[in-house]
Amino acid sequence: MFASLDLLLAFVLFAFVSSITPGPNNTMLLASGVNFGVRRSIPHAVGISVGFMVMVLAVGFGLGEVFKAFPPLYTGLRYVGAAYLLYLAWKIATSGPLSAARSETPKPLGFWGAAAFQWVNPKAWVMALGAITTYTPAQGYLTNVMVIATLFALVNLPSVCVWVMFGSALRQVLQNPRWLMAFNWLMAALLVISLYPLLFASHSFQ
């Protein structure tokens, strides 16, 4: 188990800060809160936390070693992630007015889509690798990986929900279609900007 309470508290702080700071997930949740409200965005938020927990487990149980052995797999994943992020950015940018959010045309990202997105989210990879390499004691390693993954999910869910609620609070401000369009294009631009660390920063499992 954990070597000390101090290490555990340090990890919880890491999980909170990395979960609540801006990134692709939180940008999308902010936009979802504005366009669809809290209730319709909850599956998206839960999908993020569960999908990320599964990712931490996978990294802890050896996926990182697979990428070390076959670096092209990770490179390919990065470019798949870039393409998917561009698609999501376009979907956000072209979201309709708030009155259309209840129609059959625009739909919030669901549980499975949000869970799958973690595998192509650059910030999620950094968070998962940091959790395993920095905060997981070697003694009782497998148990510690499960504890780390579970705690991360428990900290992550309320943290990302803050962005949904903030987005929902902006709905009244963004009733004007022009302001909403500007907001959605800004969120789309931020998603595109988030491609920088995915494609151009140094990423290696060597």
TrEMBL record:
<feature type="transmembrane region" description="Helical">
    <location>
        <begin position="43"/>
        <end position="64"/>
    </location>
</feature>
<dbReference type="InterPro" id="IPR001123">
    <property type="entry name" value="LeuE-type"/>
</dbReference>
<keyword id="KW-0812">Transmembrane</keyword>
<protein>
    <submittedName>
        <fullName>LysE family translocator</fullName>
    </submittedName>
</protein>
<keyword id="KW-1133">Transmembrane helix</keyword>
<dbReference type="GO" id="GO:0015171">
    <property type="term" value="F:amino acid transmembrane transporter activity"/>
</dbReference>
<keyword id="KW-0472">Membrane</keyword>
<dbReference type="Pfam" id="PF01810">
    <property type="entry name" value="LysE"/>
</dbReference>
<keyword id="KW-1003">Cell membrane</keyword>
<dbReference type="GO" id="GO:0005886">
    <property type="term" value="C:plasma membrane"/>
</dbReference>
<dbReference type="GO" id="GO:0033228">
    <property type="term" value="P:cysteine export across plasma membrane"/>
</dbReference>
<feature type="transmembrane region" description="Helical">
    <location>
        <begin position="179"/>
        <end position="199"/>
    </location>
</feature>
<feature type="transmembrane region" description="Helical">
    <location>
        <begin position="145"/>
        <end position="167"/>
    </location>
</feature>
<feature type="transmembrane region" description="Helical">
    <location>
        <begin position="76"/>
        <end position="93"/>
    </location>
</feature>
